[in-house]
Specification:
Helix 3 (100-113) packs across helix 4. The two termini are 15 Å apart. The protein has helices at residues 12-20, 57-60, 100-113, 115-121, 124-129, and strands spanning 4-6, 24-30, 33-39, 42-44, 47-53, 67-72, 84-96, 136-141, 145-150, 159-165, 168-174, 202-211, 218-227. It is built from five helices and 13 strands. Strands 1, 2, 3, 4, 5, 6, 7, 8 and 9 form a nine-stranded antiparallel β-sheet that branches. A four-stranded antiparallel β-sheet has the order 11-10-12-13, with no helix packed on it. Strand 10 (159-165) and strand 11 (168-174) form a beta hairpin. With 231 residues, the chain is α+β, with helices and mostly antiparallel strands.
Length: 231
């Protein structure tokens, strides 16, 4: 299933799901290949965005000037009645070294969705104690957006598949009978609905994440390899 191209602003279905969800994904193609991260979905100046901690600076810098996919796929994180959704487009990356933008425009959102942020930066004393939690790398999705609905990740073996079409990422939700960690293992991928994954041959990255209600445990795993043929 191809993305549907939209122009002139972030389209309604992504915006509604993104704003109301507690956990999401950011995926892109770095020079070394596709990659993805679980993120807290935020809204900045009316656009979907994420505020990555500076511990992820090296990875986030591979986004500069590129395209990314913003997605919400976890069935538990989706608002009632909303489908899993992904939107792709150019991104703006900003280093908020002082944390002024994060504290002024985004902290309240993240603290509401992510309890560890509330404890570490919810007050002046907490920000002084956890000073490293405040500076952020802000990544915002710009106006031109390609959007599609996806099957939600509802089982432990479901994952987000990130492929590369040139420097542009593609995203789908896939599952497998097993996810072996041994190098060179072949894994047959399929969509949870039985369809064929929408990903070009070449480098691929598969990841998934699940969190406890208080986000004290936010487990994630990934596999990297080569996509070839129909699964």
């Amino acid at each position: 299933m191809a993305f549907t191209l939209r122009k002139g602003g972030v389209v309604g279905s992504l915006a509604a799901v993104w704003e109301r969800s507690a956990a999401a994904e950011l995926s892109w193609v770095r020079p070394a290949g596709p990659v993805g991260l679980p993120v807290v979905p935020l809204v900045w100046e009316g656009r979907p965005c994420v505020a990555l901690p500076f511990s992820q600076l090296e990875l986030a810098d591979t986004l500069a000037g590129g395209h990314a996919v913003f997605s919400v796929t976890d069935a538990r994180a989706l608002p009632e009645g909303c489908p899993a959704v992904a939107a792709a487009g150019p991104v703006r990356v900003r280093h908020d070294l002082s944390g002024d933008v994060f504290v002024g425009a985004l902290l309240e959102q993240e603290a509401r969705k992510h309890p560890p942020t509330r404890r570490r930066a919810g007050g002046l004393l907490a920000r002084r104690e956890h000073w490293w939690w405040v500076p952020r790398v802000l990544v915002a999705l710009l106006d031109a957006v390609e959007e599609r609905t996806l099957p939600p990740r509802s089982r432990p073996g479901d994952a987000v598949l990130v492929g590369a079409r040139g420097r542009r990422p593609t995203v789908d939700v896939v599952t497998a009978s097993a996810w072996p960690a041994a190098p060179g293992a072949r894994v047959g991928l399929r969509r949870p609905d039985g369809g064929v994954p929408a990903a070009p041959d070449g480098d691929g990255y598969v990841f998934a994440h699940r969190h406890s209600p208080d986000f004290e445990q936010w487990e994630r795993w990934h596999r990297r390899g080569v996509l070839a043929g129909r699964c």
